[in-house]
Amino acid sequence: MYDYQFQAHFCEPVYEAHHLHCTKQDGEVAFTMRQIGTWLTLSSVFCRCSQPAEVTSISYTHGIKPTDIAFRGVFYEMTCAPSRECRTDESCFIETPSSDGLLYGGKVMCMCPKKTFCPIYFIGKKRVPFKDSQQRITHYGLKCKQRSY
Fold first, then answer.
1. What pLDDT shows up at residue 51?
2. Domain boundaries, position 63
3. How many alpha carbons fall within 13 Å on the CB side of residue 28?
4. Is 118 inside a domain boundary?
5. Do residues 111 and 93 touch, judged by C-beta distance below 8 A?
6. What's the pTM?
7. What is the CA 29 to chain-centroid distance, rounded?
8. Is residue 17 in a domain?
9. How many Cβ atoms are within 10 Å of 95's Cβ, its own excluded?
10. Using one digit for the tens of pLDDT, what is the confidence trace for 55-111?
């Protein structure tokens, strides 16, 4: 279940002759976008999608504390590869802290089932810390949340 879909229109052609169709393999980045305020700009194009693309990772301009309640996403990597549906016990989005303890971005792990959503853009106080056997935090995860409608 998608939170939303949009169709972008550009002033100039996006694809060039060397842009082949994407293979839809896991990890393949089709294109990248950058958000500046309410503007979303196309940064790079690597291949053509024949269907809607999905966000695969989000990066932040600078490191943020895990307690930060605002969404700071600025750079988006998009893929044509279809995402699998999340299980109830797994995170839909994970952020791994750097050696300085700050978060520099996260990865979309799966798509939330119908009637739920991944609260990436409403991240405030929803990060769940995951720890290893030495009780060190390995990553933070977001779980799918029930929709209110």
1. 86
2. 31-146
3. 18
4. yes
5. no
6. 0.86
7. 12
8. no
9. 22
10. 999 999 899 999 888 778 799 999 998 889 999 999 999 999 999 999 999 999 999
